[in-house]
Each structure stands twice: as C-alpha cells, then as structure tokens.
Amino acid sequence: MSGLSKTGRALAAMVALLVLALGSVPSAPAQAMPYQRPVETAPQQDAIGGGYKTPAVQRAVPRDYWLQVLDVVLLGAAMGISVWLVLKRRSRRWLVALAIGSLAYFGFYREGCICPIGSLQNVVVAIADPRYSIPMVVTATFVLPLAVALFFGRAFCGGVCALGAIQELVVLRPVQVPRRLDRALGLLRYVYLGLAVLFAVKPGLARDFLICRFDPFVGFFRRTGAPHMLLLGGAFLVVGMFVGRPYCRYLCPYGGLLAWCARLARRGVSITPGKELDCGLCAGACPYGAIEEMRAVGRNCLYCARCYATCPQDGELAHAKAELVRLKGAAPV
Amino acid sequence: MSENPTRRDLFATVARGTVLAVLGGGALFLVKKANGQVVWQVDASRCVNSRLGEVGVTACNLCTTECVVALSAVRAVNEYSRCGRCNICPAYFNITSAVNELGQPSEKLCPRDAIARRPIGKVDPEDPANNFYEYIIDEEKCDGCGKCVMQCKEPLGLGSITLRVRYDKCVNCNRCSISKACPQNALMQLPVSQALQPAGVLRPE
Amino acid sequence: MQYRQVQVIDGKGALHGIAVDGHGHGDVYAAGEAEIKVFDATGRLARRWSTSRPAWSVAVAGDGSVYAGELGQIEIFDGAGKLRDTWRDDKLLRRVTAIGFSGDSVLAGDSADRAIRRFDRGGRFLNNIGKDNPLGGLLIPNGVVDFGVDGEGIVFAANPGKHRVERYTPGGQLLGHIGRFDGNDPAGFTGCCNPTNVAIGDAIYTAEKAGPRAKVYDFGGKLLAVIATEPFDANCKNMDIAVDSRGRVYVVETVKLAIFVFERVTA
Fold this sequence. Notes:
The complex is a heterotrimer of chains A (333), B (205) and C (267). Chain B has 205 residues and is an alpha+beta fold. Helix content of chain B is 23%, strand content 16%. In chain B, strands 1-6 form a two-stranded antiparallel sheet. Chain B has a two-stranded antiparallel ribbon with strand order 2-5. A two-stranded antiparallel ribbon of chain B has the order 3-4. In chain C, 0% of the residues lie in helices and 47% in strands. Chain C has a four-stranded antiparallel sheet, with no helix packed on it. In chain C, strands 2-3-4-5 form a four-stranded antiparallel sheet, with no helix packed on it.
C-alpha cells in the first residue's frame, strides 16, 4: 500500500477532529398536580352494567425472538452459500441470484436492520458502557462475517450484504481507479470507523450512531426517508454505475475490519488455480481493483466472481466451450 | 505456489487463531452481559401532550413527523379502564365547535377519524346523554399526532389516552430519531416487559 | 351583573370542601387533608382541629355544629372542635364529598357510589337521591358529588356528566334540571363534565373546571353573571363553592390552595 500524501493525512486529521457536541437538552420537570388519579374515578365495568366488559388494551409486542435468531441463521447460511458458489461452484450467475435474494430479504423485507455494519457500534457501546445490554443476536451478527472472512475472505461482501448487493447490481461501466487513489480513498473507511466508535461511546443521550444515521440506502429499503438521504442514496447508485461499489470500497467501516481479517485468510477467490497466465483480462474485468499480479487480493476482493467468469481459460464461457468440444468429440483446445 | 508452509503462512495461521480467539472471547463476554431486548417508549410524565401542568397549548406532533417509519410507530392508546366513558368526550369531539340538535359538538377532533364511539351498558335510545360511551382508537388509522392525548389530559379529561410506541411497527433504531427531536426527552429505552406496562409515571433507568 | 374579588384567604395547606357559617358571622370552614380549619372574616386562621380520617367536605348546621365528611364516616363536632358524634358506614359513606341539610335530614354525597344519602339527625339512613336512573347514579367522572339545598329543602345536585344541575325532592324524586352543554356559549357548560360544584343561595352558583370559572344562574336556568375566570389557575379542578347570606361567593382555588371571595357589584 502506497503512503498517503501530506495533504491527504492533514485532511483526514481535520475530518477526525470534527467533534459535533450534541448537548443534551435540559428536560423540564413534571409538575405535581393535586388530582385524583383517574383509575379511582373512572366508571368500572360493574357500574356501567348491561353486560359490558372493559375491552383489553392492545399491547403491541416486538418481533418474536425466534425470528431474530432465524435472521442470524439465514445470515450464516447465506455466507456459506456465497463461499460455496464463489470458491467451489465458481458461478457468477448464481452469485448474482444470491445477491438479489439477499437484497430482497435483508434489504427490503428486514429493511436493512439489523446489519453487521451497524452492529459494530452496538459492540463498541457494549464494551464501553457497563449498563448497556447487547442482545446475543447482535453479537452474532457482528462476529459471523468476520469469522468467515478469517478463513475465506470477504464472503459477506459478495452476495450477502444488502448494501453491497444494491451497488453490485448497478455496476455498468466501471472505471479502473488508479491504485494510489484507490488505496488512499480506502483510508476513509478507517476515518469513518474511528468517528463511528468515537460517537458511539459518548454517554447517555449524546450517543450518536453515525453508521445508522448516514446509511445511504436505508431510505430505499424502508421505502421512505428524508429527501436529502434519498438523494444521497441515489447519488451513490449513480456513481456506482461508473465507479464500482464506492460505499463498500471507500466508506464502509465494517469493510475495513473485514479487509483486515481477509488478509489472514488462507482460502479466497482464485483465478486459473495452478496456472500462471498474464493476459490480464481478469484485472480488466474486476471493477474493484482487487487483482494484483493476476491474483485476487483477499483484502480488496468483494467476491463478485467477475474475474474468473471472464477468464478464457477458467470462466463459464471456457467451461461451456470445453463441454461443447467434448460433446462434439473433438480434442479439447 | 509452494507447498511447504512458509513463515508467512505460519504467521497467518497464528494470527488467524488469535483473532478468532479474540472474537470468540469477546463474543462470550458480550453474551454474558446480554440482558434481553431494550425498546423505546414514551414517558407520559414528560411528554407535553400528557404531562400535567400545561393547559391550552397546541398538541405536539413530533412523534408523527420524526419517526423513520412511513406511518409513525407511535400511536395514541386509550387505557379503557381509566376512561370516563363520557357522553361529550373532548378527545373525540372538537368541543369548541358549534352544538348540533342532539346537544353534542358537531365536529370531531381526530384529523384521521381514528376514534370510534358507541354507547355501552344499559343503553337509553331516547336520550344520548343518558348513556356511557366507549371510545376505541383504531390504531391503523392513528398517526400519533397527539391531539386527542392533549384533550384527554387532566383537568379537561381523565388522562386515559397516552402516546405509546407500538412494537409491531417500531424498527427499534439504536437512536430513535423522535428521541433526538423531542424537547422534553420523553423517549427512553426500557426492557420490553416494562415498556409494555400501562402508562404510569415511568422513570428512565 | 358584575362581581369583583374582595379577598383572598390563604388556605394554610390542603383545601377540599368549604362551608360558610349560616348565621352570617363571616367564618369560613374548610376541610383540609385530615383536619377542619376555620377562617374568620379577616381571613386569619382562627382555629383548626384534626379529624380521625381524611376529610373531603364540611358543613355547618343551624345549631352551630360542624359536620365533616370523611373517608368512610361523618364526624360531628361542636363549634369549638370537640367531637360529639361519629357516623361510620363503610357502604353508605365511602367517600363523602358534600354535606347539606334539608329540613330535619342530613344529606351526604358519596362519590364512591355516585349518590346522595339522606339520614335523619340521629344518623339513621332514610333514602338515596340521584340513584334512580338508568345509569345507576350521578355521572361524576371527576370523582366528586356536590349539591346545595335551597330554602324549601329542594336538593340541587350537580350532574357533570350530563352538563346540568338537577333538582330533587329530599325523597329522591327528580323534579327538573337546568343547564346544557355548550363549548362556546358562556351560558352552557363546557368540556366533558361540568359543573363540578354547585352552591345554592339566592341563586344557583356553579364552579367549572377546564376553562375554570364560577357562574351564577337564576332558578329558571338563565345565566345571570360569570363571577370570575382570571384568578383561577388553568389546572384547577373540583373547586368547591359556597355562598353566604350576604351573597358573597367563596371559591376554593385548588392549585394555589386559597379561597377567593367575590362580592356583587350592584350594576
């Protein structure tokens, strides 16, 4: 990774120093009024008579716990499928199908909440504040994608993350971002991570969950939102048509953590394993700048499977050709 | 790619194991702290629509406008056992409107017509004033604007209607955007069992 | 007809019901938290004595004895505060919020049962007033039964849920009523349940909550005057009202815990 320029460092420092104090508004005390509490003066069932029964007040309860557990199970399952599809089955088509499925369930049905990206804030608060209670499902949501990344790379990013999926599906004509710029912009993820942690550990009502607040796509998932947030989300998608997955590569704080874990992974996306080729088509196909020296680099690879899909030796086209040749009885090329 | 494990591979394996151990240990630590779900609820003793003391102010509708869900997850709830069952309910009727031939106000208060009124008990069909009336709020229509809550408050009413967060609609944000906007800090986080109790005087933890 | 405020009597603590001395001495008797307080004509607290239970109302009989309506009982004191008799009844006198006299009977308003009880001077129960209707009693979501008695012994009971003052014979028969609901016309009673309190003198005097005010009607039901609106805190509720033989009106302000005295200004 190339060094960051002096201006870049200064900029990052200034951004980090932006402390927005959310002073808590002083609350006005409730006054004590000499009233009879209504339960003593309201007419009771028997006083009303006529066989009247006081209706029960609806107590609207939260979502069942087992459904929350199911969400975690589905998260794990989706990552398992992602790993299998990308590493074993090696099919970009099926990966896109998985992405669409994840977008539909985790994105539009669950409305993008709870997500592993945001869960890092909850984990940070739980460590910092002894009185904060973090549900087990949130801890699991945070830990699972990281654990998978330790072994297989960023399987979460490819086809499971709803924010990633929506960006993945709009990639049109991605430009190759110059390496230095790409790596420099990637540092913004850690700035964002630092800010998110900083604001999450503030006490009481000053606590601010930046990742939730500035999630550009949650407005689409909820089908409602402040106009400026919807515009921002739209802008990200428009930019995403020409710069592959800008939020994932340059802003996602959890992606920064996944990148660190993915460095240690032994398995990952491989292109023509066992062969050394240098046509460079894979590097040209990768919209995320994750190919270095004809190999997918785990920490940047977003598991999109475009690289080997376009490889003339290894991709689906190549396999289809080989199958055709075999069926026709001719010798393989 | 070489088959013999290089120093790099070993380092990676060790590092992986360490990170896994940290993650696992951290997860266990957090799981030990797990205390059950915490949800947002409105404190009726702070909400300006239901707290005693302020009379004649306009109802606050920040719960309607600030909630991130399309139709606010905060709705008006009537604790029926505390309702006076009055003929002229100031939360149902707009009591400043002109009186019709039945001796009742001609206009209703709720802008979304979410309250239903019907006579109960031993019904006297001839004299409407001779009956108790039940006021049921249709939660699907209510948007939490707080007008009925303000009118039901003492001394005008008996304070049986309060604004409550409905958990089948609330997405339980980490930081409720209503809680950020509320000038009285009336939104607070409580364990689910406490949050589901009838509106009394709730004190934050 | 106009009224002006002539005096404010500091209640010296909690104030529930009040009564004025029928002999025109200017003394004001007030029921406190669990005591009876007597204020003289200058507004000074002349004497006070405690009651054995929380007190809600007070009345002064023709012979000067003081009746205190309490939780579950009525205590009868002499003018100096010495206890003479106790009428205890957990069913008929659960919460006595008003006491009055009609002929030889003692009337007690029980807010727990939404009715007025009639006893003879010895404490024997005679009959209920106000219970003989489809609703099984007076409509009092405010939790207070109040009434006044005119010179002929007719009982004028406030029925706030129906926005009217009803006239009953001491035997319990409904004779008629005055008043109606109106949110705009001052001659009507606003809100869900008004008038909360009523007193009878040379006219019908009512006290209301939620837009608190005191008004006076003639016996035909015509509004004669709005006595006052400003001095009352907007949060006042169940303001007891009393009128003496000189036509001075006494109203309990339940937030400031004071008694406001108004006098008619001959217009």
